[in-house]
From TrEMBL:
The organism's place on the tree of life at top rank: Bacteria
PANTHER family cross-referenced by the UniProt entry: ACETYLTRANSFERASE (PTHR23028), ACYL_TRANSF_3 DOMAIN-CONTAINING PROTEIN (PTHR23028:SF53)
Any Pfam family hit: Acyl_transf_3
Any one GO molecular function term: acyltransferase activity, transferring groups other than amino-acyl groups
Organism this protein belongs to: Runella defluvii
Keywords recorded for this protein, A-Z: Membrane, Transmembrane, Transmembrane helix
Boundaries of every Acyltransferase domain copy: 7-322
GO cellular component, one term: membrane
Alphabetical list of InterPro entries matching this protein: Acyl_transf_3_dom, Acyltransferase_3
Swiss-Prot/TrEMBL GO biological process terms: polysaccharide biosynthetic process
Protein known as: Peptidoglycan/LPS O-acetylase OafA/YrhL
Length: 344
């Protein structure tokens, strides 16, 4: 359990590629296909996150350990992506395609630009504040020494989601909007909770209450189809039902140890670069396609091939020259500092 789980890396890679291809073909009238279901790749990311974060918490000794682990994993890559995206936007501004200010760049570097009322420089960043809020909830559970009860607390929060979206939305629309604006995790928490339950199944075996919990998370996900404002813009309810069902079935197969055969060098490579690819791809690929089509008359297929290849090169460079070295440096530094304090 202390090693990276190969099938989860494959899931990450598939989810990242789905989101990339969704954005690559979105609003492109001359694209040979439109991968609308790729919009749901973030749902798979959220289930994975619930699984992985609960795994991490179960081998974490303190709140600071968890904070350092998450910071070293997320921020160096994110800072690199934000900086490159800001540079690309500055070039786009010179070409007449976009605008950017120093304040927007600084706010985005915090990863909390949502609460500053500042736009995301890259459209994909909206999921990161949802992830950070989930980390906060998990940290609270760790701090209060309640990890053993998080399954049940998670059920309570899912019940809050049902009441909020089912009753408050109708009875007090302004309150509903204010709550969701202040705590957008309530649009997606059931997916993280499903990941926690799948982790429990993976480590402790099937339990009827956990199966009921996963069924509830699945049902709530479908119930929120037209209430959380993204997937319903691109997919019908039945299409969304299919993708949601596929994701939950894949996780059932994974926790039953029946999916190891899907792992190969390609899927594991995609999993390795998935975070870098996710945070660098959107503005960059759309920008490259736009410039190549507008300024040089390229077809969508030609422009998107170059944009996608360049995004993979960038993501690979960020992974191997920033993510891996910084991750190792920061964690070794923290381990040494922690050891020195313990010997005082």
């Amino acid at each position: 359990m202390h090693q990276r789980l190969a099938t989860l890396d494959t899931f990450r890679g598939v989810a990242a590629l789905a989101v990339v291809l969704f954005h690559l073909t979105l609003h492109q009238y001359d694209a040979p296909f439109h991968l609308n279901w790729g919009a749901t790749g973030v749902d798979l990311f959220f289930i994975i996150s619930g699984f992985v974060i609960f795994l991490t918490l179960n081998k974490t000794q303190s709140v600071l350990d968890f904070v350092v682990a998450r910071f070293s994993r997320l921020y160096p890559v994110y800072w690199a992506a934000v900086t490159l995206t800001a540079l690309f936007m500055a070039i786009g501004s010179w070409l007449g395609y976009s605008q950017i200010s120093l304040g927007e760049y600084i706010a985005n570097m915090t990863m909390f630009q949502y609460y500053f009322g500042i736009r995301d420089l890259d459209g994909s960043y909206w999921t990161l504040i949802v992830e950070m809020l989930f980390y906060g909830v998990m940290l609270l559970g760790l701090w209060l020494n309640q990890l053993g009860r998080l399954e049940w607390y998670g059920l309570g929060l899912v019940m809050v989601q049902i009441i909020l979206h089912g009753w408050v939305r109708v009875a007090a629309p302004s309150v509903y909007e204010a709550i969701l604006k202040g705590f957008p995790l309530l649009n997606h928490f059931q997916l993280f909770w499903a990941g926690i339950l799948f982790y429990k199944m993976f480590t402790q075996g099937y339990d009827r209450w956990r199966l009921v919990g996963v069924a509830i998370a699945y049902g709530v996900t479908l119930y929120l189809y037209d209430k959380t404002g993204r997937s319903n813009l691109f997919l019908s309810f039945w299409e969304y039902s299919v993708t949601t069902t596929v994701y939950f079935v894949l996780f059932f197969l994974f926790v039953s140890h029946k999916l190891e055969w899907i792992n190969n060098r390609v899927t594991l490579y995609l999993g390795t670069i998935s975070y870098s690819l996710y945070v660098i791809h959107h503005y960059f690929t759309v920008g490259v396609i736009t410039v190549l089509k507008d300024k040089f008359g390229w077809s969508f297929v030609q422009a998107s091939t170059v944009a996608l290849a360049a995004a993979f090169v960038l993501a690979t460079a960020i992974t191997y020259f920033i993510e891996k070295p910084s991750l190792q440096y920061l964690r070794v530094w923290y381990k040494n500092r922690k050891a020195s304090y313990q010997t005082l």
